[in-house]
Design goal:
The complex is a heterodimer. Chain A is mainly alpha-helical. Chain A has 9 helices and 1 strand; from the N terminus they run H-H-E-H-H-H-H-H-H-H. Chain B is mainly alpha-helical. In chain B, the strands form 3 sheets. In chain B, strands 6-5-8 form a 3-stranded mixed beta sheet. Chain B has a two-stranded antiparallel sheet with strand order 1-2. Chain B is globular. The chains are: A mainly alpha, B mainly alpha. Chains A and B meet through helix 2, strand 1, helix 3 and helix 4 of A and helix 8, helix 9, strand 3, strand 7 and helix 12 of B. Strand 1 of chain A pairs antiparallel with strand 7 of chain B, so a sheet runs across the interface.
Amino acid sequence: MSAMAATDGKRGKGSGDHRAPRLILRTILRASAALPIGWLPLPGLAADAQVPQVAASEVKRLIARSFSSSGQVTVDSVLRQDATQSECSAYTSHADVPAHVARRIQSAEAATIRYPRDGKWLGDWKEGEKIAQSGRGLQFSDPRGGPNGANCYACHQLSPQEISFGNLGPSLYQYGKLRGDAESVLRYTWARLWNAHAFTACSSMPRFGHNGILTEQQIRDVMALLFDPASPVNR
Amino acid sequence: MKAAARRTALLAVALAGGLAAALAAWRVLAAPSAAGAVAHVTGLPPGAEIARYREMLADGNPAELWEDAGRALWSTPAGPNQVSLARCDLGKGPGVTTGAYAELPRYFPDTGVVMDLEQRLAWCRMTLQGLTRAQAHANPFGSAGNPSDIERLVAFVAGQSRGLPMQVSLDHPEAQRAYALGQSLFFYRGGAYDFACATCHAADNQRIRLQDLPNLLDKDGARNAYTSWPAYRVSQGEVRSMQHRLYDCLRQQRFPAADYGSEAITALTLYLARNANGGIYDGPAQKR
């Protein structure tokens, strides 16, 4: 089950029934206590000091007693790490994941990918540009029910007109022009947007389809931004 | 009278002149790509440009107003007990503010736990001044027309460590445990976006849009980032504390709301502060 699917938006502090969340928390903590997760050595700077081992269950208890559900974000939603979130918490970045671990994560995540039911890959690039610009959505300060943005420009260059872009991800300028629009390329790009961990275990990129951040139609629109010859990305 | 006149003058400068200049400077710097056009225009490398921008901002930092107000709050009798915070022990003895922030968070034998500045201030306001827990934690983040006493006290105490090296101790086992928890939380991936602190703050030369992201695993990155908070945020018109910085990072990380003065924030703060050890504290600074 994905982290998103676990969120019902109703539980947490302030709700009438406090027994249910506590029971859930106990179940989560018991389950994670059973996992033999060695968190350290993580990269840190206190090599001179005695830093004790911390079990995943202890970090979850810390989160449980330090955060409150707010808006659409529940404490449960971050306590319920899925297997990938849990495993990836042991590495600084995708580059540090051992090959055999990466293969296992990638194959598990690849199995989650859903392709468009009607076989239609591309939507409206103008809508895609809006989605790429918007960083709103799924913060506790955002209104419930979206629409969510993808904030592509936070990490990627896309349209050359937008000069405020980040560099955590590669430039996607001329994405379609350089790659063409063969079925295999469309399929690969859709899958990457749906679940980046299927290709790069412990990627920094959110799993936009798998975690329900974007709808199928929104992914079509972002696909159009990347592939449509009329899109500024390809001009 | 003199102090009041000076404050008024400074406020006028901050609002009319300083702010306008700062915003204009920011617009000039923010418009073109961080690495490209600015350097092209001025002939300076981007790092030097940003340093120059910060220098312009530092001249007439409105955070000074918060420091002054905080100093007054510190020494004015308040609460049901009508006493000041002059006997508040921030770890270096009752009433000692000089250098206290550079050693926080720290383990306090009288409470038996590791506390950051804001937890300790709340503790002093409860035990010395007689405030309730709710009163001591009220309004931690100010807004227009709703000034925060806490942000003012924090600005004052932090400013009393300016020029001193960060010296956070892990000698006590409780401090070691808090550091380890903070470290694990730094790498904890969760929520709808699968983000951890490390997703954005564990590599050099990364940007979200045009905003530089400090690499908090790097000694210089950790020092430069930590020693500049609290800071006057030009975009918010308020001095923001480390509690606020982390609360807002976690919000954008799609985590739920971090409780003010919670153990998780203190653990993360200790992790970051300790990693900044040896850096010269230089806040409260001024930021975008």
